[in-house]
Amino acid sequence: MIDFLAAAIRIATPLIFAALGGILSERAGVFAVGLEGMMLMGAFSAVIGAWASSSAAVGLLLAVLGGGAIGLIVAIVTVRYRADNMVTGLTANILALGLTTYLLHILAGTAAIQVDPLGPWPIPGLSRIPVAGPLLFSHPPLTYLAVLGCAGLSVLLFRTQTGLLLRATGENPEAVFVAGADPQRLRMIAVISCGAIAGLGGAVLSLQQVGTFTDGMTGGRGYLALASLIVGRWHPWGAAAACLVFGAAEALEFRLQGFGIPVSSYVVQMMPYLIAIAVLAGLGRSTKLPAFIGKPL
Questions:
Q1: Measured by CB atoms within 10 angstroms of the end CB, which terminus of the chain is less buried, N or C?
Q2: Which residues, by range, are in coiled-coil regions (predicted)?
Q3: Residue 174: CB partners within 8 Å, gap ≥ 6?
């Protein structure tokens, strides 16, 4: 059970990063449909950076820049030129899929790149606590960073003036303008930041979990992160809890396959997405979106 729960936390980590980025974007009034492309570009950039420099730190920096670049494209098209959020996000996902595949073959000349994955960082003393130690304090570094990100974003959104202005941009941008701030600028910053944080989520997937990049390796996780932030009502901790549920579903998938249960692997792989659809259908219209989301300024 401890191994299962620890695996659920590890699997949920990239989803948490993407969901945190999506919260920033949607709180500011821009649908975060492009999370999949931002994660994919982050995963690609992280592995390319680590492979070329033999440094995980360089890989993480490039992941932030790569995801932020997709965020910048989305921000310019949706905020500056007022294009439809949904169409732009889906286009960004397709762009990232094609671009990463092309660049992978150009830069590496292969269909996959292998790097040494980030190993666990047991916290001295705490990692030896029975049950809690292996479950909570023996993870790779980016998992701890995801928890800190939830705490930091909660403080930013609900305890600072910047967070108040950001939330107001998605609810009542006229009030933001009256307060002396530029809602368009806030939206741009939020969407670019969304891309940077989601890029870290992609780095977790490629650089921490598997140590490689392959074509389309995010496999729809950006959409799971999008579902998580909706289920979590655009709150960092709520979104993180939803990500853990999806992580547990995927961890269960691996356990069922290991037990040799006579169920098709394709059916088992659909479990996280079926859960997401069921939960979103159950929420229905009870979910209250930011009032000005998707509307041009």
A1: N
A2: none
A3: none
Does residue 34 lie within any of the structural domains?
yes
| Within-domain flag for 99 | yes
Q: Tokens 């999008």 — which residue? A: 226
Residue 172 CB-density burial (10 A; 0-12 exposed, 13-18 middle, 19+ buried): middle
Domain count, the chain: 1
The domain that contains 139 carries what CATH number?
Answer: 1.10.3470
Give me 275's structure tokens: 């859960």
| CA distance linking residue 62 with residue 68, whole number of Å | 9
Measured between its terminal Cα atoms, the distance across the chain in Å is: 50
Q: Identify the three-state secondary structure at position 16.
A: helix
Q: Is 213 helix (H, G, I), strand (E, B) or coil?
A: strand
Q: Is residue 20 part of a domain?
A: yes
Which residues constitute the domain of residue 97?
A: 2-286
CB–CB of 238/59 below 8 Å? Answer: no
Contact 231, 26 (CB under 8 A): no
Helical (H) or strand (E) element with 281: helix 271-283
Q: Does 175 fall in a domain?
A: yes
Cα Dmax for the chain: 62
Neighbour-count burial of 100, counting CB atoms closer than 10 A to its CB (0-12 exposed, 13-18 middle, 19+ buried) = buried
Instruction: State the pTM of this model.
Output: 0.94
| Alpha-carbon span 217 to 36, nearest angstrom | 10
> Mean pLDDT, consecutive 10-residue segments, the chain of 297 residues?
87 96 96 97 95 93 97 96 95 96 84 84 88 88 96 96 95 92 95 97 94 90 93 94 90 70 71 81 75 90
